[in-house]
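FOLDING PROBLEM:
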Amino acid sequence: MATQDQFLTTGAFASRAGIPTSSVTKLIREGKIKAEKKSGKWMIAPDQLQARALKDSVQPGKKAAKPARPKSTASKPAPAPKGKSAKAKPGAGKTYSVAEFAALTYLTEFGVIQWLKQGRVSGRQVSGGQWQIDAANLEVPDVKRLVRQ
């Protein structure tokens, strides 16, 4: 490897390679980048920037393997993960406010809002920013088991 003052820390290496520091550490652990630990820090020779494993693992200038986060708006809940039960269609039938829906279930008002954001229940925001939750959500299995008797 290179002399002591030519070594790069994981942060400096990540900056030059255009990847996150966590990706550099992961590549070191996987053995795709050669590095030495000195005084508790990984030290990497600059010639490792050209390492084939680095090019195969991460494209320089782009973030590594971080899934793209969809842009969410306040009026639309996030889509539910696949494999979950079918959800009620927004706008169909009676609706409840967050407080009313919480009173009908064992969810708190905070929990109802979280479930809206996660897409576990469907609803929409009306003027003034208030949420209206569709009554059909009471028949969704995840919610149905939480309905107060």
Observations:
- The helical segments are 10-17, 21-29, 52-57, 98-104, 109-118, 141-144.
- The chain has two domains: 4-57, 71-149.
